[in-house]
Amino acid sequence: MARxxxxxxxxxxxxxxxIEKGGYGRSVRTPWKETSPFRDSLTCVNYALPxxxxxxxxxxxxxYVPDEKRAELVPCHFIPLTEKGETVEDLDMQGNQAKMExxxxxxxxxxxxxxxxARVT
Length: 121
Known about the structure:
By secondary structure, the chain is mostly helical. It has helices spanning 8-20, 88-94, 97-120. The chain contains three helices and no strands. The longest helix has 24 residues, at 97-120. The mean pLDDT is 85.
């Protein structure tokens, strides 16, 4: 199985920038369609593809998904984002977009810092 060859650090920085600039609000082109964190961004190996052409196992984010959730339809929605273990799935069910985006930004900042620190050593 081919692995996503894009640089994870750059992907997370791009994703963070995307969210900080308004991110997952409704699209002007398709306001009736909800956007999905990670799935509707450049981070996703299937971004802009009409269907899921690549298995999620090829994505860098799969390493952050608990083993028991890797078979889910959108496994990246089960990445624990907060200290309480809340995921995109959990936060989406609460219906609080702002809280979800803050959790995503905090998680990405932590992962970016970890990756940068690992590259320095």
